[in-house]
Specification:
6-stranded mixed sheet, elongated, single chain, 4 helices, disordered N terminus, 6-stranded antiparallel β-barrel
């Protein structure tokens, strides 16, 4: 999924819940060259429009990072050997760029904006939806977490939460208008698997310490 929802590292602190809707638009994956450039992993269909000079992004980084709580501003965006590369204000050499590797870039978005891409939703559209399995409501989406491999729907089930991979095989239907998502989870995702009945039957009998009668 582009802009709307489809790579926070497990070590990255989740950004604070803002009053404005925010969208992930990229991740800084590698320092490039000696002048502070950074290669980008894009989560937007319009990188040339998003990364214009002067565009500002909120950073998602671990709370131990010197960049925690800060934002960055684009100085220049270009393509190098088909790879998107960005230069940021105040990042003037490779050492500075390396302190930003793996940071995720977020941008404010108008909450009323319409997502035109199929199978793409803003996080705020998903949070609060009922989670339905086999026709029954079993929980509610409490947040969406973004990781490099895939996105996760965090589903509240009473006092506990379950991490549901946001993939078509497990979440085949999202109906924002109806206020629900349909899930077809594998066994054990929402509940503990039952004990294997064969284990007890196949277990060797306990030795009988009773002495033989003669």
């Amino acid at each position: 999924m582009s802009d709307a929802s489809s790579a926070a590292d497990s070590s990255a602190a989740r950004p604070p819940h803002p009053t404005k809707t925010q969208l992930r638009v990229g991740r800084l994956v590698k320092a490039h060259g000696l002048k502070g450039a950074l290669k980008l992993e894009l989560y937007t269909d319009d990188p040339n429009g998003r990364f214009v000079p002067g565009a500002s992004f909120t950073l998602q980084v671990p709370d131990s990072s010197p960049w925690f709580g800060k934002s960055v501003t684009v100085r220049e965006f270009r393509w190098m050997n088909s790879h998107p590369v960005v230069f940021l204000d105040g990042v003037d050499d490779r050492s500075a760029a390396e302190t930003l590797v793996r940071a995720i870039l977020w941008i404010d978005q108008d909450p009323s904006a319409v997502v035109e891409e199929d199978d793409a939703w803003f996080d705020h559209q998903l949070v609060g939806l009922d989670v339905v399995r086999d026709g029954d409501v079993i929980g509610r989406v409490v947040r969406v977490d973004h990781f490099p491999a895939q996105d996760l729907l965090i589903v509240g089930l009473g006092e506990r939460e379950v991490l549901v991979p946001f993939v078509k095989a497990i979440v085949p239907q999202v109906d924002v208008a109806a206020g629900r998502v349909v899930v077809t989870p594998p066994a054990g995702l929402f509940e503990d698997l039952p004990a294997d009945d064969d284990e007890s039957s196949d277990a060797a009998p306990e030795p009988d310490d009773t002495p033989d009668e003669h």
